[in-house]
Sequence to fold (1316 residues):
Amino acid sequence: MIVSLKSGADAANVLRELTGRGLWVSRVERSASGNAVHYVIAPHSQLADPEELARIDGVAEVTTPKPAHPLVSAQGPVVDVGGLKVGTDKPVFMCGPCSLESEAQVHETASVLSSLGVSFIRGGAFKPRTSPYAFQGHGDVALEWVRRAADAAGMRVVTEALGEGHVSAVAAYADLVQVGSRNMQNFSLLKAIGKTEKPVLLKRGMSATIEEWLLAGEYLLSHGSKGVIFCERGIRGFDDSTRNLLDIGAVALLRYVHRLPVVVDPSHGLGRRDLVAPLGRAALAAGAAGLMIETHPDPSTALSDGPQAVPLGELGSLLGRLVSAEEAR
Amino acid sequence: MIVSLKSGADAANVLRELTGRGLWVSRVERSASGNAVHYVIAPHSQLADPEELARIDGVAEVTTPKPAHPLVSAQGPVVDVGGLKVGTDKPVFMCGPCSLESEAQVHETASVLSSLGVSFIRGGAFKPRTSPYAFQGHGDVALEWVRRAADAAGMRVVTEALGEGHVSAVAAYADLVQVGSRNMQNFSLLKAIGKTEKPVLLKRGMSATIEEWLLAGEYLLSHGSKGVIFCERGIRGFDDSTRNLLDIGAVALLRYVHRLPVVVDPSHGLGRRDLVAPLGRAALAAGAAGLMIETHPDPSTALSDGPQAVPLGELGSLLGRLVSAEEAR
Amino acid sequence: MIVSLKSGADAANVLRELTGRGLWVSRVERSASGNAVHYVIAPHSQLADPEELARIDGVAEVTTPKPAHPLVSAQGPVVDVGGLKVGTDKPVFMCGPCSLESEAQVHETASVLSSLGVSFIRGGAFKPRTSPYAFQGHGDVALEWVRRAADAAGMRVVTEALGEGHVSAVAAYADLVQVGSRNMQNFSLLKAIGKTEKPVLLKRGMSATIEEWLLAGEYLLSHGSKGVIFCERGIRGFDDSTRNLLDIGAVALLRYVHRLPVVVDPSHGLGRRDLVAPLGRAALAAGAAGLMIETHPDPSTALSDGPQAVPLGELGSLLGRLVSAEEAR
Amino acid sequence: MIVSLKSGADAANVLRELTGRGLWVSRVERSASGNAVHYVIAPHSQLADPEELARIDGVAEVTTPKPAHPLVSAQGPVVDVGGLKVGTDKPVFMCGPCSLESEAQVHETASVLSSLGVSFIRGGAFKPRTSPYAFQGHGDVALEWVRRAADAAGMRVVTEALGEGHVSAVAAYADLVQVGSRNMQNFSLLKAIGKTEKPVLLKRGMSATIEEWLLAGEYLLSHGSKGVIFCERGIRGFDDSTRNLLDIGAVALLRYVHRLPVVVDPSHGLGRRDLVAPLGRAALAAGAAGLMIETHPDPSTALSDGPQAVPLGELGSLLGRLVSAEEAR
Fold:
């Protein structure tokens, strides 16, 4: 929202009026012709009423620029996934192995997760691997495993569509279609997924700006997706003490400024199992709609990403620590 | 801690034994002569007993490399600042204006802060400003203002020593000497501050690695400082949606892996007043020992950093939201 | 290459011997059992003869780890594109508009480029755009335009395959298939392109490490590509003074350490037409095999990326300045 | 420079007029009241004449905003250091060891450098080291060594003032006072150095923006420095294949847009001796006024930064390769 001042207006007084309403004034610009222009971004839309602001003494006009991503701006913070609402006060958990490794593993996992109140089972049938020689996932058959296991346990399925050729199969088996970080700007894939009309979990690219992320969501919604849940999983940083850099500010920004649902993946975010609990708590405190947590019956034998997976037998204790006041010091 | 295997040992089994104890195995390296070498970093020292690990079948030896920062490694998570312990279960708040602007402002601020249970008043007498033409702080006289105001209100003082020439004055008036981000590797300043033997609040440099930050703390402790509290205030990112990038993973890493006290500055971290509450809550959830929050009686007239300061009259409500379950959605 | 020392060897003397041969000793590691291990990376393979190094006094063994990307490591610095060798002493230029806008535009451009000695005409039939509402390219028909124009002018065609569905058409019309930055880790696309057996121009991802880039090349070669030319076009930085951050060190590293051909795109690299000449000269000086330069008959009317395009009428002068000693000061 | 349009002007035509003059139009903004505002940044001041631009049809006014760093903007591309002009067509070389290790070493080095036509001997008497336990330099006595050696060889001295306490000694012995990367925003040090009125070599901070770097120069000039030479030495990146990320775009930007002298340090920039030649050539091609190159009589015994130093005996050959056409492929 842009608040333009009249010539000769008392700019400091207008600023006081705006900040006095709890509004965040991000930039003050002066046009070439000398009129001061204040840009205001409202943290909560109900706080900023353009008509009311226009009545402040010294204000010439209040305009609301058309957003670059109108469908994303209009979506709102709650997305319905097969009847389950993601983005309410009750956090949603999405757990499971990095890769779907066998039908037995998937059933065992689903059974434990269901008993812990986890809503979604996650796991990759197709895996994006940096090396062409690494394990690439079991493919279509793994989609059948996870669907059957989820149905038996009364859970929902979230899994990644890695390429355009997998979209229809993933859409047929999954409740929520995942777009991986490396594909956040694979526009052909976004269009193909949009056409399935399924809700989507959109992971942020390794060095994507917030605006690029929102525009990737706009690709999905403008091609048919019924809802987009954003997923922060850590961006590229300069320090290898942790695998990635979890951008907790982006979580708060999407939730409280853009009013969108964000799920956080603290497993990939740090790449360290021992910090999943404090970072998961931090994510929920910053406004996350839920958490995606890697778990594996036996991480030491995992075909991919073992070091960051939580042993399935310890997941219940972890979920408990996520909602407790804080880690024992 | 490094766990070296015997020739021919069952490496997968040793890994299972280690992860089964809750240990995080960060890297597996193979030496030139063919012996597998596992590096283990223990999340909590009590979990990793070298003698017990050495008894695992297949383990040849367990060695603990000498840390590059022995004094920092030995300090522990609690630092005493004039009788107040920072780093316990009770979070500590450090609040005040960016710059100390007048004696009246400082007294008014201290009086309000004290009534809200805030332990430290903060504020700069000397300000590091990107431009030589920006306001540089009121200097020595402001140190007297803040000391008198804090004494009257029963509070402690934290303020920055910007240059070597200010160290003795700051040490005389402050309870906790602050090192700013731009000076994290100003080694002459670190040595001078160390010699005063005061406890120090060490802000992280804009692009400092964790290891560089810890070594800056080692400079302080090895030259006499009685304790170092680390302060995460956001690092340089690639997206200007937020002023900086708050590294919440670094907070958890320092608290739970290195066992050190970390205070978080969500005001500088994002540069947005409207996100101070969710990010402050996230910081505490990730293990922060406390928060540093900029506040000003009237942010619209602040001499520096107004847009990110919380109005003094709203601080009580903000502190309440920090300890409540979560933001209203 | 790893040079391991005998117990009790004079490590400083071995180091002198290695550096005396012009070798770059990147890391010195000490194994858990106390034997020093030196890692050596040879700048030019002919300088480092494992058998000769093994005869240095104090050396126990010299091992050459299997590279993670064997086909990329074996490719070499020259790639043949339809009879034209890219990577020789003679730099290759790839010029043209961002988007292929009309048949007339393409023919006019090809005619001028050919007269200037430019080998490749570039231009997008399919454009990756951050917003779904931006111009997405003219599609298949533009491939026909550019092929006919190139054939008439005796040039080669390089153009991007944006999605899996475009691969066969692009492979049918182009001499060199381009993979864009956003698709560097679109592994489904890499596999599909590999199967066409065409040579590929692989742009580096916005925040891709060197190793990730080389492994993306390995995907292409292991699925059939007849050669991979790498293209540095600027990575994500923290300063918006320039659109991207041109990583000139990566160019030298790929050329002189990994011995691979690299083309540099100074138009995208900085996003500023006025710096194309000095950066193009710098790229060639650092070992680039050629340059990709955006040009347009009338940049002010370009459908995309106008601000960085060089007017077609000024290209001849620019190419002249690229090979002259240096910019007039 | 800001070009504002009249209401109803043909914006596309004005843009064509501007780009037709070789001007780079960086941004087009639309004010709240609907008038288009074009921002123009001129690559060379002689190209953009405000009065002439104001006569373009449709232009309402042309304004030149006051720069944030007026003294830096006015300095120009040549700085005089004791009679030697830095920034002319003839590149200047600054060579020497990382640390000044002994009087004999310094004299031997100066004698060789002088015979090779190198203008400045460099080397640290005070060393900024990440660890407090690393060698910190020989201090004041080393300043005497390097001064005597330079005088004997007819060279100039550039050396770093690490702390405020060293400024007067360094200013007494050096011709050019160096500010290190970690101190780029140590404003107390900048003020103290400014007061000595000596010319300064200002290294860029690890993650400093161009604007922050220029403003640090403004601190120096506004406090008395007789000239500032900027030094690009690599910024913090995300890939540890190279020690730092050499920002060649910043070199061109400072030289051709801001018209300032820039010296490049390819030794620190990459941390690899084997790439000093191609990167040095690239820096000169991008407009660098000179190069700073670490050299050591015997790098394997250097007290600091040995791996990146060029052996003194090979420096002549290296300097020859810097001015030759290009590296043998």
About this structure: The first helix of chain A runs from residue 11 to 20.
